[in-house]
Amino acid sequence: MSWSSSRARAWILAFSLAAASAVRADPPSAPAALPSDSIYHLSMALRDPQGKLAQLAAWRGHPVLIAMVYTSCKSVCPLIVADLKRIEAALSPVARERTRVLLVSLDARRDDTGALRKFVERHRLDPRRWLVATPAPGDVRPLAALLGVRYRALPNGELLHTPLIALLDGGGTPRARLEGVGTNASELIAAIEGTAKPSGVTAAAAR
Amino acid sequence: MGSRLILSLVCALVLCAGHTALRADARARLPLARVAAGSFRPLLAPSSDGEPRAVSVRSFWLMTRPVRNDEFLAFVSRHPRYRRDNIPRAFADAQYLLRFETPTRLGGGARPLQPVTLVSWFAARAFCESHALRLPSEAEWEWAAAASETLADARRDDAFRRRILDWYARPVGELPDVPHGPKNLYGIADLHGVVWEWVEDFNADVMVADGRSRADTAAQNRFMCGAGALRADDVQDYPAFLRLGFRSSLQASYTTKSLGFRCARDDRASAQKERP
Amino acid sequence: MIDATDRNIRTLWLLAIVGCQQPVQERPPAAPSVAPSALARDTGGSGQGDLGPPQGPPIDAVLTAAPQVPPPTARKQPAKVVVALEVREVELPISEGVTYTFWTFGGRVPGSFIRVRQGDTVEFHLRNHPDNKMPHNIDLHAVTGPGGGASSSFTAPGHQSQFTFKALNRGLFVYHCATAPVGMHVGNGMYGLILVEPPEGLEPVDREFYVMQGDFYTVGKYREKGLQPFDMQKAIEENATYVLFNGSEGALVDDRALKAKVGERVRIFIGNGGPNLTSSFHVIGEIFDRVYPEAGTRMQENVQTTMVPAGGAAIVEFKVEVPGTYILLDHALFRAFNKGALGMLKVEGEENKDVYSGKEIDSSYLGDMMMPGGAVSVAAEQASQGELTIEAQIAAGKTLFTGTCSTCHQLDGAGIANVFPPLAGSDFLNADPRRAIGIVLNGLIGKVTVNGQEFNSVMPPMSQLNDDAIANILTYVLNSWGNKGGRIAAAQVSAVRAATPRPAGAAH
pLDDT of A109-141, one tens digit each? Predict the structure, then answer.
């Protein structure tokens, strides 16, 4: 039998799909180097403002500031963005160059690519270092749970949520948290500086 | 040639049957009962105008007792990723399944029919998913738990409330085999009096940790978008209040000795409902 | 906290004498205390509390269980102090034969006493034991910061939290769990005291004690046996079942009493966890030489009874001059005698007849209200083995009778003519001994003829006595002063208690 035949390929495809669905209950196996407490163990696909797929671990190796927002949020989410910009501005050039910002939407149903693009424009976010992306609806709560963000959908479509900025090191381990808006960020900034050093980026490679 | 074909067919059948039997054993049927649809005002009720509003719950199916040690052990055997020695710390804390004597054996400290505890939210979800089920939502769980043996909503009944409060007054002690207590209106037991239980949206509970600042909406708004949009409805419902407090103290990777779970599924008769 | 007026006046005189050429200083040197010309001004509160960064290595705080108090810090510099408190939910006795599931800081009620110095940096660790069911946190009234630490310390079972604060204000402060519903957590015993010493320390005394009052609400009535759950409705109505010092009836009684010697100066740090009731704190037979009301900085002198608010504290100091047993109580008297708000301070030493000549009333006076030792314990012990002898009943009954009934019926059972009927050789009693059970439980109002004399008085119900106590008392009475003998069993009392209604207001 020739493996290049279309029938064989169809079998291979069918088998792969079957295998993939059979292990759906398991989280996809992560590369061995991921630290035990890394949030990148949660492998999830995000849709970016261009409609392309990105992984949660897209910036593995970089210090990442991660927060959960939604584009139609009127009060707190713009303040979270402002806080992130403030923090970014306070970093040393080395740290700023290495650090990335990941904003994940809480509103998977309504934050489509159009909404994301408008959000990026409105807040003038630099796409080289800022990513706003929407997960699949079923992935929102696990990510929020992992980060410690609490949220609830209200009947009128609004989302009740706690504002939180978390710093992940290169391996995806949360290193610092900033709760609330307008809170003093000096400890977080110090943590980013520490993580952005060359040794900090590859920290905690082993369990 | 013919007999060899028959023989191989027979072997194939036997193997298939054996395989199916194994699968059936591993995926032992979990007992579920149907909870009728309802409308009720939960403790933290959504409100856009200051008046707490009722929440509707579609009919759904809920396990009639918490998940047991033997069932969870079978799960980690089939899904080694969730064994105590394999699971990433991001998904479960250091006490995960510590009652089991080894990662693959129950031992004396965990009887097969006791409710499984020391499980995290991620592990509980994965278990339910492996059975083609899910965790109940908080609204579903609270609606099912509002029922006594005879009433769908017995939350204002003093005797009902007192029985539940008494459990909070007792130390943890040894867990009973389940099912243990009386069945409620739907035939579901042990929603009260045995273990706390995970719900899918446990992190929708945004109770401000300091119990005195309920009135301080300005402070709450700083920590939460739209904090004023939730109204505590019946503050006399102390059991619900205690559950709210407990869920608020949890992170998804946490495990505790008195926290277990049970699974649920949609009622196929009612329309599919997407969860946020 | 110490009124430094005296010291400053003395300092001024000294300076005036020693250094005439020097200008008399308006303000005293160095010590952070009040200038005599500024009695109306304050000590600066939290504004004066930041004494700079902590010096030296971190110190593990010495934590003590009530009634012990940690020793003075005796430090001259601010330090970093590490405090680790573990929350435990634990079933303990609250009264004789009655248990309760307390939620505690450190395994007992009240929680551990914490002692630091003003300006110290406290690194606080709150541990929630894995065997607990409930989440908990802590609010220390000594903390300047949101919630007093409550929002930073919300902890699930099997986890721990940490936060750091600087003790800016001197004083004696309550700490308690502030998890909703707060009243329930506090009502279950989650409170204690933290002392922030002034920088110069407190004036030395001979004894320091830690006493904390609290009110408790159970589903069962006072002294109803068994494991009693918390009663939320009674707590809301502020209808306390028990009002206790240090978490159980008898915590400070008999062999667990506070002890001192004649001539010593005693200081009591008296706190009140509540949740509801304010205390009228009094020591029978003593006057407080000094009181720091509400544990503040100003001192009051010669006080008989001081108020300790719920969620507050006070400091009292007095010198004991005469030996004997002094009763600590909440002078809201029905709490003391019907709900357990009683403790003892036993003072030993030489008599001082000039100061007090009378014979002291010893513990048997209050034998019925507390958990007495001696004969009553022996009887209880025997009863629990199923081997209660009539001799033990009589001995126990005598102790109890002396403590309660003799007040009216007199020690020899003779009663008082025209007022209280006799029990000695009483035809009324001997005609139907079992009738007496109902009378002791439910009281007796109206005409009764005993030994030819008519009495028309009011005997109050004594149902706060439990079945064993009543059985023992009646057995003693039946076997004394020429009565016909016989014995009454606790089961008989129990049957009458169940079969008859109690008058309004009586205990169970």
Answer: 999 999 999 999 999 999 999 999 999 999 999
Q: What is the pTM of this model?
A: 0.74
User: Is A88 in contact with A63 (CB distance < 8 Å)?
Assistant: no
Quick one: average pLDDT of C481-500? 92
Measured CA to CA, the distance from residue C135 to residue C153 in angstroms comes to: 10
Q: Residues in chain A, how many?
A: 207
pLDDT higher at C301 or A180: C301
What's the rounded mean pLDDT across residues C230-254? 94
Query: Long-range contacts made by residues C498-503, C-beta under 8 angstroms, separation at least 24?
Result: C500/C438, C500/C441, C500/C442, C501/C442, C502/C441, C502/C442, C502/C461, C502/C463, C503/C442, C503/C443, C503/C461
Q: Quick one: B125 exposed, middle or buried, by C-beta within 10 A (0-12, 13-18, 19+)?
A: buried
ipTM above 0.90, yes or no: no
Q: Which chain B residues are Cβ-neighbours of A37 within 8 angstroms? A: 88-90
Please list the alpha-helical segments (H only) found in A52-132.
76-90, 93-98, 113-123
One-letter identity of residue C176: H
Residue with tokens 């009495």: C455
User: Per-residue pLDDT for C35 more than 60?
Assistant: no
Judged by CB atoms closer than 8 Å, whether chains meet at A180 and B223 is answered as: yes
Q: What is the pLDDT of residue C404?
A: 76
| Highest-scoring range by mean pLDDT, B196-210, B234-248, C21-35, C270-284 | C270-284
Q: To which H or E segment does residue C396 belong? A: helix C390-403
Mean pLDDT of the C329-343 span: 93
**Could B242 and C137 be called an inter-chain contact, meaning their C-beta atoms sit closer than 8 Å?**
no
Are the beta carbons of A168 and A42 closer than 8 angstroms?
no
Min CA distance, B168 vs chain A (Å)? 25
| A151/chain B closest Cα distance in angstroms | 5
CA-based angle A174:A175:A180, to the nearest 5? 85
Residue C498 to residue C23: CA distance in whole angstroms: 84
Q: Cβ separation of A160 and B205 shorter than 8 Å? A: no
Query: pLDDT tens for residues C130-156?
Result: 999 999 999 999 888 777 777 778 899
Contacts of C200 (CB under 8 A, 6+ apart): C2, C31, C32, C33
How does C124-145 read in b/e, with b if 16+ C-beta sit within 10 Å?
bebbbbbbbbbbbbbbbbbbee
